[in-house]
Amino acid sequence: MNGGTPSRFATSRFMHRGLIQYSSELIRMCNDAKKQLFVYEHDAGRLELLVRILYWILIGIVAWVYGLIAGICLIIQWFHILILGNRNDALSNVAKGYLEYMVHVMGYVYIMTDKRPDIMPVAVKIYEEL
């Protein structure tokens, strides 16, 4: 090893240390972007309880229609798997979207939060912590 150039081992160790530092920074940023869905909120608005009734009706209609479509897609998916031996991506996405919508609105529907969700489905991702 000459004095001006670092050894291959030292360079790879430096790169590895930088990668670990970058990875831990990336993990920290991802954790900051996450929020827990079902948390206790002490404050609650009385007027919001009245508004919630209208929201329950609208969310119920959207969930019923979306659930009907998702149910039909699941039946078609069952036959698709039975005949072709694989899943259809579009049919799976409809079922996944329905489940994500239901989880997205549950906090409001079950009076856990006053933050109103969108009535129409929006793109959300749900992860399981391992």
Overall pLDDT: 78
Terminal CA distance reads 45 Å
The main β sheet shows up as: none
Tell me the Rg in angstroms. Answer: 24 Å
Main attributes?
mainly alpha; 66% helix; 130 residues; elongated; 3 helices; 2 domains; single chain
Describe the structure.
The chain has 130 residues and is mainly α. The protein folds into two domains: 1-34; 39-130. Helices cover 66% and strands 0% of the residues. It is built from three helices and no strands. The protein has helices at residues 8-33, 46-84, 89-109. Helix 2 packs antiparallel against helix 3 (89-109). The longest helix has 39 residues, at 46-84. The radius of gyration is 24 Å and the shape is elongated. The two termini are 45 Å apart. 5% of the residues are buried.
Topology overview:
Elements: H1 8-33, H2 46-84, H3 89-109
Give a short overview.
With 130 residues, the chain is mainly alpha-helical.
